[in-house]
Amino acid sequence: MSLLVTGTVAVDTVTTPFGVSEECVGGSAVFFSLAASLFTKVRLVGVIGEDYPFEIIEIFGKKPIDTSGLESRRGSKTFRWKGSYTGDMNEAVTELTELNVLLEAPPAVPQTFQDSEFVFLANTDPAIQNGFVDQLKSAKFVVADTMNLWLDNARGELERLLGRIDMLVLNDAEARCLSGHSNLMLAAEKIFDYGPKYAVIKKGEHGSILCSKDGDVFAMPAFPTRDVVDPTGAGDSFAGGMLGYIAGKGKADFAALRQAVVMGTACASFTVEGFSINSISKVTPEMIQERVKKLKDVTQW
Amino acid sequence: MSLLVTGTVAVDTVTTPFGVSEECVGGSAVFFSLAASLFTKVRLVGVIGEDYPFEIIEIFGKKPIDTSGLESRRGSKTFRWKGSYTGDMNEAVTELTELNVLLEAPPAVPQTFQDSEFVFLANTDPAIQNGFVDQLKSAKFVVADTMNLWLDNARGELERLLGRIDMLVLNDAEARCLSGHSNLMLAAEKIFDYGPKYAVIKKGEHGSILCSKDGDVFAMPAFPTRDVVDPTGAGDSFAGGMLGYIAGKGKADFAALRQAVVMGTACASFTVEGFSINSISKVTPEMIQERVKKLKDVTQW
């Protein structure tokens, strides 16, 4: 079934212990789309400024990513993010954020995308995420990501959003902050009180936990790799692999979501192996299958 | 095959968000033995002072734990530890340590224990751990735990110990400190350079990773539970479940160790559900089987 993503298309500058990647391809919608397109067609909704220095066609190549929802806005400047990672690289330190075009009106969902059934709303102001939900009347399974900033600054809009989505994806620190619970099982239960039926709590190098309102739990370690170069985009490609898989299957029950988490884990494990999109953009469905086989060996008993 | 543990028998005072447990049963050898005895017979080597306020028979009941290596030393005082946990309870804050009898000569390994084949050396001064290795000439599989203190203060003795053991068990912060690598796969490789064939890196609520010198890796999440009351002893009962299982099976190849990590995970998940030994001491082999079944449901795909 059709899969739509709304999110950023950005220019990143990233420093890790392995080097600096200046003015490189970034953005949640880009990482998500590259991963999801390994499983199904993707519709991308986003906005860039006229200064955007890359050719979209060169980023996505022949992958099944429909960019007719990507608006290039004259007179505007592209969103830029500068950050760094140290030590275990589990958390980015943001050094500079130039919101630029993100401070303007959000992009519209093209008419041809309005029948989308699976939807991923990457992290942004929950008021904007609510605006997208308004436009996507055919949506059957809506997933949103969020971050601490909105817990503090837009709690009302965020709670309204939570009442309208099927699944929330967030990291463990955010789950604790949103719920007020240190214990992640209690945090998930609190999230369900707000509306979603499912929650995926991302824990970086420690993997992720999928929980359902019905009490189902699935814990998945990250792929243990010695080759972590740049974690930027890992969370968005995790979500991309996950949503790409369930949209491809056309169903989102707990059994499908369990497999979807595995696919997301495989995608994220590629993303971290290179700066920017260098690694994830070269991945093929065959490489995913091979990594899933390795994940089986590493996690099954 | 025979399993011997050397470690502490302590009096703990523990504060968690769920309350205070004053002057309660503690010690690495106690938690280890309670868990290991669910799978096999255990021989305990340790030392207490004449002030030890509990009856050993009441702690271990009819479990197959041979305490003839537990020395009660006249004129000495028992080791005491006071600590607290806050937030996600992943790390204890030590408030007071009274080493007492631990500053004296270590207990001797009784003649009747000297044919032990599986050995666990709980965390202590590596010079003392080396002394135990000297006495255990029949040992076929020796596992040691350690902590950051010894990395700083007894590096030489620790490196000598690493050259004499088969497996090192330590937490992720310690693995990073010992190896100088943030990446846990690289940390494990560095540990293998010192001698051990296997390493188990414990990550608290995030589970554990078992690695072999041959490149095998097994990642196991912790049991996702809402009932974390007191993490004290979780690491030692994890090791107890693990070693109890392989000593019971009489083999320690990677396939057996994989299952052993699952058993350790099950034991630790019970320990954290109560203060002190309240939960782990009531566990039966049937309860372990039931929890392993749940772990299968939570981790397998």
Automatic annotation (TrEMBL), chains A, B:
Segments crossing the lipid bilayer: none
Enzyme class: transferase
E.C. designation(s): 2.7.1.-
Domain Carbohydrate kinase PfkB: 35-275
InterPro entries xrefs: Carboh/pur_kinase_PfkB_CS, PfkB_dom, Ribokinase-like
An example molecular function term from Gene Ontology annotations: kinase activity
Keywords: Kinase, Transferase
GO cellular component: cytosol
Cross-referenced PANTHER family: RIBOKINASE, SUGAR KINASE
Protein name, UniProt field: Putative sugar kinase YdjH
Organism per entry: Limihaloglobus sulfuriphilus
